Amino acid sequence: MRLGDQASRRWLARTLAWSSVVLLVLYGAAYLAGKSLGPMRRIGQTQGCMSNVRLLARAFALYADDYEDRFPPASRWMDASGPYVVKEQRFRCPAVMEASGNAYGYAASRSLGGVMRAELEAPGETRLLYDSTLLGRNASDSAGSLPIPGRHVRRAGPNAPWRPANVVAYADGGARLEWRP
Known about the structure:
The chain is an alpha+beta fold. The chain has 3 helices and 6 strands, in the order αααββββββ.
């Protein structure tokens, strides 16, 4: 067909049919790409959460440095450690933010609120901050709110399957993924 020619109904129908086929193929390819990249999004959320929790554990340590070596009060840990955290977004778990933009998703250990760091016998094994089903600001409990199954993923080895896990920070400032069956 030339520029000055008038389109026939047959030509328009054929063009519309091929355009529909091309759009369906592109939609199918995008759908399959989304399905195959879904696990990558969860891995990214896991890394973002791990980064947040490490930074928050550091904020707890900085707070303790300024307040006679005591951790912030559990009932207002976000408010107390806020000056040591640059972005408010760090208080929000990426996986929870995707589901509900107003929720937080972390809780502090109620038993460590106001406790002196020197009094802890095994700080590397004492949970300080963790993923939680309690989604409000300043959430705290005795680690009973860890999500089951975990909201993040981890592998036990290079070829092992991905398993649900939760991000947990410890009183010594370390953080790791804990797998819960």
